[in-house]
Amino acid sequence: MPENAPWEYTLYIPNDLRAVTVARRTLRLILTMHGLIRLTDTAELLAAELVSNAVRHTKGPAALRVRRSAGVLRIGAWGADPEPPEPPGELNAMRDVGEGPGLALVKACADLWG
Question: Using CA atoms, how far apart are residues 93 and 99, in angstroms rounded to an integer?
Fold first, then answer.
């Protein structure tokens, strides 16, 4: 496959917190296979937070999608809940009110949130 050719993978996962580990390991293998090892740490953090939210806050199955096109890596997760989560506030503000940092970490590490 040419280096700049677009690609996409989707991993369907059950509503089980153990799926977070499976998603992280699968993502690491995909990125390594495509020569993007330098992105794995941040990508794994993003994927773990997104998948754990999808699994924790919905009752049905979830999925992780990893896509690269035009030099941009996109990571997304979704669960059975049709309503998307509210975008987080600032990380420090979330700590002050006792909320977990999950989606605030995604916001801090991702180039775009949406």
Answer: 9
- Polymer length in residues for the chain: 114
Q: What is the pLDDT of residues 74-105, one digit of tens each?
A: 998 888 766 665 555 554 554 444 445 566 66
Rounded Cα gap, residues 104 and 91, in angstroms? 5
Instruction: Report the Cα–Cα distance between both ends of the chain, in Å, rounded.
Output: 29
Long-range contacts of 77-85 (CB under 8 A, 24+ apart): 77/23, 77/47, 77/50, 77/51, 77/53, 78/54, 79/15, 79/53, 79/54, 79/55, 80/15, 81/57, 85/53, 85/57
Distance CA 78, CA 26 (A): 16
Task: Say what the pTM is.
Answer: 0.73
